[in-house]
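ABC transporter ATP-binding protein
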Amino acid sequence: MTAAPPSLLVEDVAYAYPDGHQALFGVDLRIDPGERVALLGPNGAGKTTLVLHLNGVLRGGRGRVAVAGLPVEKRTLQEVRRRVGVVFQDPDDQLFMPTVGEDVAFGPRNLGLPEVEVAARVAAALAQVGMAGVADRPPHHLSFGQRRRVAVATVLSMHPEVLVLDEPSSNLDPAGRRELAEVLTGLPVTMLMVTHDLPYALQLCPRSVVLDGGVVVADGPTRELLADADLLGRHRLELPYGFDPTRVP
């Protein structure tokens, strides 16, 4: 039996912006189906630039990106963007329709799916994030944490291969962090989580990749990387005071 291709394959990707700023200098990354991986690094490390290559928003540099074996190029962009779902840091950037149900239905409707299929996807996606029963509510009537879960549902309704989350724990209270973590750990998708929240990375992602200066500087088990004080110090990553990753169950 032929092995499944990696969910994400990044090979020697380098990219410079039009103003000449070189953001990536030859990044290699492989994420296999079902993995949950945290992408760590200081501000300006190139994390956002890398993520924008995964669904073809940025192209034209050196190297190759493939999603489940499909190369990211002009002719494949529609399918790539279905396979790679990006959840923005601010859910209000993602929710713009009058009701939750219409927001979650927006992507499937754009695929031209029959309304029966759209409705089924909306119901399933909202159930996956623990938000069943709110389809008729306006998004702005929900709490911030609830809106973030609905934003995840808008991506899940597209049946993505890969879920990319940008700072998913930011601005959440402790209950919201816990509720989102329970949702994310139960999803049957490959996950790449961009975060500065190192304890959240440890909680959700067995593997972490550290990006700094446009290159991958570390890739390994999250617990081992977070226990390496020298590594964290060199790349301006900080654990909360008193947090010991080796003592977390």
